[in-house]
Amino acid sequence: MGGLAQIGFAAPWLLWALVVLPVLWLLLRAVPPAPLRRRFPGVVLLLGLKDDDSVTDKTPWWLILLRMLAAAAVIVGLAGPMLNPDTDEQARSSPLLLLLDGGWAGARDRDARIELADRLLADADRDGRTAALLILTDPQPPVFQPAGDLRQQLAGVQPVPWAPRETTVAKALDALRRIEGGFDTVWMSDGLDFAGHDQLVADLAQRGRVQVFEDGRGAVALLPPTYEDGQIVLTATRSRADSGLSLDLRAHGRDPAGAERVLATLPLRIEAGATSGEARLSLPAELRARVNRFDIAGQRSAGAVAISDDSLRRREVALITGRDDREGLELLSPLHYLQQALEPSADLLHGALTDILPANPDVIVLADVAGLPAAEEQALRDWVEAGGLLLRFAGPQLAASDLSRREEHPLMPVRLRSGGRTVGGAMSWGEPKTLAPFAESSPFYGLQIPEDVTVSSQVMAQPDPSLADRVIAELSDGTPLVTAKPLGQGRVVLFHVSANAEWSTLPLSGLFVRMLDRLAVSSVTGQPEVGDLAGSVWQPLRVLDGFGRLQDAGNLAGVAGEDLVAAPLGPDLRPGLYEGETRRLARNVMRPDSMLIAANWPASVSVAGLERPEQVPLAGYLLALAVLILLADVIAALALSGRLSLRSRPAALGLVLGLASLFPYQARAEDDDFALNATSELVLAYVITGNRKVDDVSRAGLIGLSDTLFFRTSVEPALPVGVDLERDELAFFPLLYWPITEDQPIPSVEAYDRLNRYLRTGGMILFDTRDADIAGFGAASPNGRKLRQLAEPLAIPPLESLPGDHVLTRTFYLLQDFPGRFAGRDVWVEAAPPGAEKIEGMPFRNLNDGVTPVVIGGNDWAAAWATDDQGNSLYPVGRGFSGERQRELAYRFGVNLVMHVLTGNYKSDQVHVPALLDRLGQ
Amino acid sequence: MTPSPPLRARAEEQAALLPPLLARAEHLAGNMLLGEHGRRRSGMGDDFWQYRPLQPGDTRRMIDWRRSARGDTQYVREREWQIAQSVMLWVDQAASMRYASNKDLPEKADRARLLALAVAILLVRGGERVGLTGTLLPPRRGNNQVLRLAELFSHDDAADYGVPEARAMIPQARAVFLSDFMGDIDAVREVLTKAADRGVRGILLQILDPSEEAFPFQGRTIFESVGGTVSHETLKAGELRDRYLKRLERRKAALADLCAVTGWQFHTHHTSDSAQVALLWLWQALNRGTA
Question: Which residues are in the DUF4159 domain (chain A) (predicted)?
Fold first, then answer.
């Protein structure tokens, strides 16, 4: 993997030109840079001056070196250098056998594999070789044909979700032996060992050269999930135990909306040197029940997918007993043995039936419950008909009741004879009965019956035409032990013995648990044994393809239970999810005890990775390098001959550096200046609308108002400032004048946040639509509509037209009109609280509220206030003297407004002065 | 598109050059007079020469309001100097003067003509006779003379380096030579000696481009005179700088010495400096000569 070894040349003879370089050195050295002609009147003073040294008339050595480098780069570039050249082995003429494993382990790199094979076939085609294809998972007798024809078949080769089996490998060996003559082999291996592997290698090596391509990363697979201590245990295994490997596992399932998605992800680490790693996933039962498969992210193969079946599902079983709990006699409790049997494999629910039914358990066990209230019975019946499994046990109470005596009760599978019977007891004849072998139609078929299971008491079924169909287990004397009947989509099952050990030893035996399993009362944990599934037929629901994609099984044939567990995967048994009578079972590519074993190759076989490095032509880079060097040479030559203006460079450089470094500081300094300017004096502010004319008027207006305040009141504002809502902090300003223009942009969300904060903390905005409010407040003028848009996100309280006794009418001047350039009618302010009452003898209502956060009008106040630098009014108001009066009133409104903002309801409080004085005894 | 511009068009072009030069010179001179006229000297009745009616070209400041108020005509009061002076100008028109190192700077010739014309205007206003050295334009007084000077100043000389004209010098007259004095210094020496012999005193104003003072050149360079007759090749221009500057210094020293011997005045002006400064110096130097 040396660097230089991977460079080849398209035209190596051109490299001889490098010999000329020393000559070039001499040539370049002799020629000094071209002189610059310069007009200069002072030349007469130069006449006769000699140059100090003669060395400089030679080109400096580094410049020559630079030029030599450029020349060398051009020469080497033209010679066509290539990285990773196709220095493939000499052309061979023998036929080529393309051997593919074709298993799931190759799915991840299938495209790379096929591409490589395609390239090799293309090469073979160029050499005129014939080629044949042999896939180990599906061996067909190889037929040698022109390699070009074979390339077309290649695209159709898909990995299968199983590995080469002994039988197929034997078939392949057989087919190979029948080929006459020698051939070379290209083996696209999946990297996994399989039965007959070594034999195959040996056979092929005898016939010709064998070249193996395999993915150096090795295969990674996921073992079927198991359930342990409330956690799902996921184990990943790999074929090569080299460096540490981090994987991401994903749990797929349906979300509540029914869409397929990733429900959980968890990391899994395989330590360096280990072949497997384990991760534990703890999921809520609800979520866990929805998981349908796990996979390894980024590993596109069937082996990296583990389908989960019912074994992850914990069934919810509700246990209900009719008998009152007798303290201290737990072993006699009808539920004790059920609890013991089910606890490891199911979630148990206790409680009253009415409480449990809404939780929709999978199974409800009624142990010795006779009668139920009618409402409960109906609800229970509905639940069964909707698919529930009702499991009843007999007992003294049931035997004593009249339940299902005359006619069959809907919630009982059979009619019962009264009393039941006892055999083998102290007061009866006969021996306790044993169980008869299960019939083939029974769900219990195949279960081993321990000899020590005896039944001493039972309730007896009334002989009935339908009885024979409903018996699924019977005693040796032919009396029913377990009966069942379908009801709606659900089932009702009755054990004719009690759930405790009083009537039989059945609850004490392992058979009891297995019977419950068969009835799908308990959830299955772990993989079933061959014996458990003997005789059952499982229908594929969804199957995996080689890439690990789940596909609908379509009309694939059913699989025998024992095959499902034990047989190797193949076309007849695909990995996937299978459905039996009561449960679903998953068959995964990997078994719980599977190991991945890397294929072992003899030393005589050459093994290569799938990635053949791309052939990279380097000529372009070298020629570009030459151009760059020549550019540098131009600059250097210019600098040497004094043609490069040295004066301008530092200046430009300094400018660039200066600009770059100044910007951030400048911005920060600007912010500080803004804050200092706004806070060191009282400052009135206006909103910059972006319309230059309006902004100028606003500014001039606030200058005029500021001057008026300065002259007449103790408020002495500094020059007003414009506020950019998007950028500037508003908290510094007591009053914000906001003229509305049609085209101003709506502020951003952040700006509105700032505005609302400003209003909440006591700021005031004076909205001015500047349209004389022609169409009534906000209704139809363009500015009115814009105002609505602008004010919508603002936290503005309810408004009212400024009432006659509002504090604005008397904060400084006594006013009733609020004209600006226009003498519009209404000015709107925050509405007074509804309960405000006028106090007897007082001219004003008692309005002790705060400052109104907004004042809205359309009188174009800024234009009335506006003055130029000399204090002359900028815009005419009205006509003649009355106009000047109106302007004066506009100023007074402005003064009142600022006073209102600054003093709040102070003037309103003065209402109380007479009362206070009165109380003080004046 | 005729191959060469017609005579008329060229004449127009030449004529178009005059007003700007004249106007700029007038402007420069006007600024000058502002300072001189502020002082009214009393008791100079014997300096009075005549009242003459206001003519186009006279500024309003020149009007004698006391005389004019007596009638409808506006008069200008002209004074007779004790000895009517003749001032002869020589402006180097050679190619070496048509040089500016930077396009923001005026050519040396441009600056020289401007200064010469401005001095001429000032002198004409002061009643002096102004002319060129040599026989081309003998000193005369009157505004027409300024126009003629302006016209003659717009002709370029083909020679590479100018040689001062010393023929037909009027004895006891004054002379102003404006040049870069890069040419043969012997010619200057000869002329000044000749002038001193005739009792002519005057001013040498050396006008230099800043680059001629700084010599900011690097690298292999062939220096050529503007006319192209002289050239010098160097491989490292930067190395020559000190020696060049030393030579320039020596040249200036030689000129200054020459002036000191002959009673002339010498000054160096750079085109990067304001013309006003040079004009002020010129005017004061001329006044010094008369006083």
Answer: 684-902
Residue A844 CB partners (closer than 8 Å, separation 6+): A805, A838, A908, A911
Which of A52, A54, A640 is closest, CB to CB, to B219? Answer: A640
Of B221, B224, B243, the CB nearest to A642: B221
Angle CA(B40)–CA(B42)–CA(B45) in degrees, nearest 5? 115
In chain B, the residue whose alpha carbon lies closest to the alpha carbon of A38 is: B223
Of A32, A43, A51, Cβ closest to residue B239: A51
Question: Is the whole model's pTM more than 0.90, yes or no?
Answer: no
Residue with token string 């490069």 = A644
CB contact under 8 A, A56 and B235: yes
Region B86-290: CATH code:
3.40.50.410
| Mode of pairing for the β-strands spanning A421-422 and A389-394 | unpaired
The alpha helices in B39-180, defined as continuous H runs, are 65-68, 108-125, 143-153
- Alpha-carbon distance of A287 to A254, in angstroms, equals 9
Q: Which of A360-364, A457-461, A803-807, A886-890 has the lowest mean pLDDT?
A: A803-807
Is the ipTM higher than 0.90? The answer is: no
Residue A435 lies in a domain: yes
Is A647 among the domain residues? no
pLDDT for position A895: 92
Whether residue A209 sits in one domain with residue A163 = yes
- A273 with A418, same domain? no
Q: Distance between alpha carbon A309 and the CA centroid of its chain, in Å?
A: 25
Q: How many CB pairs under 8 A join A and B?
A: 104
- Which residues of A fall within a CB distance of 8 Å from B218? 642, 646
Give me the residue from A33, A37, A641 closest to B224, CB to CB: A37
The string of pLDDT tens digits covering residues A174-226 is: 888 888 888 888 888 888 888 888 888 888 888 888 888 887 777 888 888 88
Residue of A nearest to B246 (CA): A45
Q: Contact at 8 Å (CB) between B162 and B134?
A: no
CA distance A636 to chain B (A): 12
